[in-house]
């Protein structure tokens, strides 16, 4: 128990330290927070895309809403919720690794997990990955113990349903583990039964979308369309040939860059050894390799998937027990060196991206322990918070080059009900009977393209005066 306490502290400490500085930016954290807030205003069962959760898994929105109910803070409650489930993930990771590879391997795996900067970020923002990894790792730990522990089979199925209710990329685990159950028990009906129980949420979700929208796969098609349209933009940025190679090698590249070679290379060596020497655990190799290859081929060959580091996290998490296994057979000096390299990279990269104002610090922010706004975005948000909030209604234009309008609005200091975003699909309805006191306008933004601003100073018949300019962003105030 004493060792478990020290390991829990090792995982919690870097996340607690970073929690005070990190901001919701990546992983649709802001959009998820707002959706959860709307749900909390009128709680109901989300049964489809149109039920208030859009393309996001409903379980994560429930978690964010519960966190806000406990602590009514849109800026911090969701991040604390992620912290709790992020730290809790260390337990099923330890249990699975100890059962299969021993105490020393389990300790090393958890310490490597503690220094995994990408997970530190996800554990301190309102993204969905922290919750998803807890569900996924719990499912694997229970599934592995199902041959000896009564109830573990049902625990694995329950955890899989929870993972599927959090993120769609977890759905692939259901057929994979159902086949594994058939293979390891040699009982087709048992494998089919496990798949049927584990797919309960997915079945209900598909049915709900069919009833609401006439298309059971609508959320999946929505996400697929987004990736198909996003892929050409990334290919144009990197060059089509290099980008195809990047897509193909993205998963191993993410392992090297986020886990560091000190953990990724031992995990790769152990992956091969596991396949050759531990036939009963070949299914772990399949869980890692098959999705990695599948997503890589989708991007590299079919041009239908634009990968992000967050998408690799399940497979990278499964590498940590293997890295611990390989390192446990090495000297204490080698083990210490590997962990020092991982921790040093976590700290160094976090410090480098703390002010993401250069090209490289901005690009690497997505895999860093720290998640912070760049100065160009922070300045207008700070100005609004200091000079405008919370007086009147704030209306924020739609950013024509990305999604900067979301964090600018989120960190403006205005209460949620006093913000109105042009990106909002029900914008016109929400604007009826209301007149904004403040406007944030983007050069080339939607308001400008629609001709909503007359002479850059009149909106819907009301005159505005320019109060501040920050690059392509201008802030107007209504004339009394």
What report would you give on this structure?
- This protein is of the alpha/beta class.
- It has helices spanning 2-19, 29-41, 58-70, 77-88, 90-101, 103-114, 117-122, 129-145, 152-164, 173-185, 188-198, 200-213, 218-238, 240-248, 250-259, 261-277, 282-300, 313-328, 332-352, 359-364, 375-387, 405-410, 427-431, 446-449; strands spanning 394-396, 419-421, 438-442, 453-454, 458-459, 462-470, 473-478.
- It has a seven-stranded mixed beta sheet.
- Strand 6 and strand 7 form a beta hairpin.
Q: Which descriptor suits the 3D outline?
A: globular
| Mean pLDDT across residues | 95
Largest sheet, in brief, is:
7 strands, mixed
Query: What share of residues are in beta strands?
Result: 5-15%
Helix content: 55-70%
* Helix count, DSSP H or I runs of 4 or more residues: 24
- The N- to C-terminal Cα distance equals 66 Å
Q: What's the quaternary structure here?
A: single chain
List the helices and strands and how they pair.
Elements: H1 2-19, H2 29-41, H3 58-70, H4 77-88, H5 90-101, H6 103-114, H7 117-122, H8 129-145, H9 152-164, H10 173-185, H11 188-198, H12 200-213, H13 218-238, H14 240-248, H15 250-259, H16 261-277, H17 282-300, H18 313-328, H19 332-352, H20 359-364, H21 375-387, E1 394-396, H22 405-410, E2 419-421, H23 427-431, E3 438-442, H24 446-449, E4 453-454, E5 458-459, E6 462-470, E7 473-478
Parallel strand pairs: 1-2, 1-3
Antiparallel strand pairs: 3-7, 4-5, 5-6, 6-7
Helix pairs in contact: 1-4, 1-6, 2-3, 3-4, 4-8, 5-6, 5-8, 5-18, 6-18, 6-19, 8-9, 8-18, 9-11, 10-11, 13-14, 14-17, 15-16, 16-18, 17-18
């Amino acid at each position: 128990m004493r060792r478990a306490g020290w390991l829990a502290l090792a995982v919690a400490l870097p996340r607690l330290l970073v929690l005070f500085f990190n901001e919701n930016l990546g992983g649709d954290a802001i959009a998820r927070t707002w959706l959860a807030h709307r749900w909390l205003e009128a709680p109901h069962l989300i049964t489809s895309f149109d039920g208030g959760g859009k393309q996001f898994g409903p379980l994560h929105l429930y978690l964010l809403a519960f966190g806000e109910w406990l602590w009514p803070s849109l800026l911090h409650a969701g991040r604390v919720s992620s912290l709790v489930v992020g730290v809790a993930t260390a337990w099923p990771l330890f249990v699975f690794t100890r059962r299969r590879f021993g105490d020393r391997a389990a300790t090393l795996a958890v310490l490597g997990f503690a220094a995994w900067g990408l997970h530190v970020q996800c554990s301190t923002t309102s993204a969905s990955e922290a919750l998803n990894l807890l569900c996924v790792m719990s499912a694997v730990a229970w599934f592995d113990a199902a041959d000896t522990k009564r109830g573990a089979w049902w625990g694995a199925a329950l955890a899989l349903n929870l993972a599927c209710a959090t993120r769609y990329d977890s759905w692939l685990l259901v057929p994979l583990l159902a086949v594994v159950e058939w293979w390891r028990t040699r009982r087709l009906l048992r494998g089919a039964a496990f798949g049927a129980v584990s797919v309960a949420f997915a079945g209900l979700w598909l049915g709900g979308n069919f009833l609401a929208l006439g298309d059971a796969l609508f959320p999946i098609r929505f996400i697929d369309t987004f990736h198909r349209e996003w892929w050409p933009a990334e290919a144009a940025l990197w060059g089509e040939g290099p980008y195809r190679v990047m897509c193909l090698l993205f998963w191993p590249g993410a392992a090297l860059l986020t886990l560091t070679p000190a953990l990724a290379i031992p995990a790769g060596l152990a992956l091969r050894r596991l396949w050759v020497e531990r036939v009963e655990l070949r299914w772990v190799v399949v869980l890692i390799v098959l999705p990695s290859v599948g997503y890589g081929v989708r991007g590299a060959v079919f041009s239908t998937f634009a990968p992000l580091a967050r998408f690799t996290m399940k497979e990278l998490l499964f590498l940590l027990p293997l890295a611990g296994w390989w390192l446990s057979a090495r000297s204490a000096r080698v083990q210490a060196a590997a962990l020092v390299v991982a921790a040093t990279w976590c700290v160094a990269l976090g410090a480098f991206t703390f002010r993401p104002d250069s090209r490289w610090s901005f690009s690497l922010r997505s895999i860093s322990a720290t998640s912070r706004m760049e100065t160009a975005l922070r300045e207008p948000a700070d100005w609004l918070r200091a000079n405008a909030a919370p007086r009147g209604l704030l209306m924020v234009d739609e950013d024509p080059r990305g999604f900067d309008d979301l964090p600018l609005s989120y960190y403006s200091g205005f209460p949620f009900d006093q913000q109105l975003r042009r990106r909002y699909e029900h914008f016109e309805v929400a604007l009826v009977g209301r007149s904004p006191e403040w406007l944030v306008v983007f050069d080339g933004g939607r308001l400008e393209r629609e001709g909503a601003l007359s002479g850059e100073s009149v909106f819907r018949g009301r005159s505005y005066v320019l109060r501040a300019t920050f690059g392509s962003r201008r802030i107007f105030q209504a004339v009394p």
